[in-house]
Specification:
By secondary structure, the chain is mainly α. 60% of the residues lie in helices and 0% in strands. The chain has a domain of 45 residues. 14% of the residues are buried.
């Protein structure tokens, strides 16, 4: 038997940050976005290449350590994907859209499903069952 659930109206605390301060903190830049995105993708390629080259050439603890480091770098794909979905990296929205799809592909995420659940997540963060991302831990879609 399914129970009819009504979402709770939440009274959120608002940090005392002026609109001007918030505008400054949220400035986007295509140049800085490219530097950060290319740097991160370059780090993924570099650590992956090192891990790949180490297999069969280095002692297994070194191989395991390199693969572990590469995996740690890879685990942060969701953070970049999250920011691209929010259009908060590049000033140009089409660049956010493009790289959101690139990061979604690399992380095997569905950007449309993520956006739908993430909208509810921001309304009901940490208040299950309305927070649709509560079951994923910190930031997994």
């Amino acid at each position: 038997m399914e129970v009819d659930h009504q979402p709770v109206k939440l009274d959120w605390y608002r940090s005392p940050v002026s609109r001007e301060q918030l505008r400054i903190l949220n400035q986007r830049s295509d140049f800085r976005g490219f530097v950060q995105t290319a740097g991160y993708l370059g780090l993924l390629a570099f650590t992956g290449f090192l891990a790949y080259l180490s297999a069969g050439r280095l002692p297994w603890p070194a191989v395991a350590l390199l693969f572990f480091f590469h995996g740690m770098c890879w685990a942060f794909l969701i953070n970049g994907f999250h920011e691209f979905v929010h259009n908060s990296v590049f000033e140009t929205k089409s660049l956010n859209w493009f790289f959101a799809r690139v990061f979604a592909f690399l992380g095997w995420h569905n950007p449309y499903e993520f956006w739908a659940s993430h909208t509810e997540h921001h309304k009901y963060t940490l208040h299950p069952p309305d927070d649709l991302e509560q079951n994923y831990g910190c930031c997994m879609p």
